[in-house]
Amino acid sequence: MLARLGWGARLLRAIGGVTVAIILVGGFTPLANVVNARMGGPSQIAPAEAIIVPGRGGADVDEVLTNRSMRRTLRAIGLYRRSLAPLIVFSGDGGEVDARVRLARGLGVPGDHILAAHGANTTREEAAVLERLLRPRGVARVLLVADPIDMPRTRALLQRRGFTVLGAPSASSGPGDPESRLSLLRDIGTELSAYAYYRLRGWM
Amino acid sequence: MDMDPQELLLPGVVVATSVAAFIIGRRMLRLRPAGLGRALARTLETLGLLMLFAVLNMALGVTFVLAWRGISGEFLSFYLLNDAVLGILSLVEALIFQWWWVGGD
Asked: CB of B100 within 8 Å of any CB in chain A?
């Protein structure tokens, strides 16, 4: 069978061996958690002019936020309640933003302290929408609430648009079971690909 | 960040069933130990094929998304490709391809 290929079969076996190694190391060691925490960088909780919460995963058809989107939203509301900023800005796709606004209002954040940033499909577009919304309000120093793996790209895009960004990563310690760690490892791969793509396009 | 001892459950049961399968294979089915090496090699080949199909599927998907955005002007997210189902389907492709190859021997 594949042995007919000679070097090709050996290459396939090598790739297969690497795959097994990735599954074992990724699933049963804290590698993904360590990379996750490194990408998030240090938590820089300090007063700012706005709390920015980029989209992550949207909302389902029942307008319920995904786990990650919910975590970010609750983290941002917690920071608002600590009076670290007078404004929370939710961005992302329409359904996600609306669900976040409803949740924040339901948890007691006044409507005039919430800003909905509609109209962005990508992280790059989110940065542009946020600049259009926040620049006229004189907002320059922001607390960025995002998953650790999303922090480098989002931070770089916002900094390029002139914001001073304080990182407030959500869920920095990462998951504690093999399946979730492998899932996180896949997400890290996806995010690093996106980071490389953005760098290649000269967007950051 | 430390590993929870409870996480040894999964590798533990897999090692136990693997040992049991080895004993059954040797004593009841009279399988030769040398065949185990070939089985391992073929398994690694299957996993190699899985990765190959996964990369090809991903590359084709990225190309399609970029083309769709360019031609239609409509947004299509790359995150649609970040789905475990693509991995499962790639595995099915790898298994079918390898069995096809085996059948050709």
From this structure: no
